[in-house]
Design brief:
Layout: H1 3-22, H2 26-51
Helix pairs in contact: 1-2
């Protein structure tokens, strides 16, 4: 399985968990889910590219 697919799957599960844990209304859950999902995925990609030149 591709590593990026596993990263997206993990971010999906964690973002869903955090959205249901910290928000009670449906709109707040959707906003929390989208923000945390994007932060997890884009943050991992950025950190991966920053570590790329190092062995």
């Amino acid at each position: 399985m591709d590593h990026f697919l596993l990263l997206v799957w993990h971010a999906l599960l964690v973002a869903t968990f955090f959205a249901f844990l910290w928000r009670s209304d449906p709109h707040g859950r959707k906003v929390m889910f989208v923000k945390s999902f994007l932060i997890l995925v884009l943050g991992a990609v950025v950190v991966g590219w920053l570590m790329f030149p190092f062995p």
